[in-house]
Amino acid sequence: MGVTWHWGKLWRMAHPLEQAVAAIVLTFQQYAELSGNKHKLCQAELKELLQKELPTWVPTELRECDYNKFMSVLDTNKDCEVDFMEYVRALACLCTYCHEYFKTCPPEPPCSQ
């Protein structure tokens, strides 16, 4: 059984985390639908999403080769597109590397092996 969000219901929700999750899904859908495959982002869609939706988090001086590298890192299954799971991992990484809250986190312990 899945959960479906609708814009009208979204704004009536009392919990900010519910609103944030719905916004993450709806933003992905909005950009993924631009080229026809509503379940994946091509590099152009990902670039547009980053530039328009995260303008203060993504440096404006990124060159095309930087987007190519970013895409290759996100595209873990190497199908030249970013699916929703890859997109969510990217958002988590952006939070970890760009948000002030995480800048004071202790480094991860070294691998025990």
From TrEMBL:
Key word Signal present: yes
Highest taxon of the lineage: Eukaryota
UniProt cross-references to Pfam families, sorted A to Z: S_100
Domain EF-hand, chain residue ranges per copy: 66-97
Stretch forming the signal peptide: 1-22
Alphabetically ordered keywords of this record: Signal
Protein name per the record: Protein S100-A3 isoform X1
Organism: Erinaceus europaeus
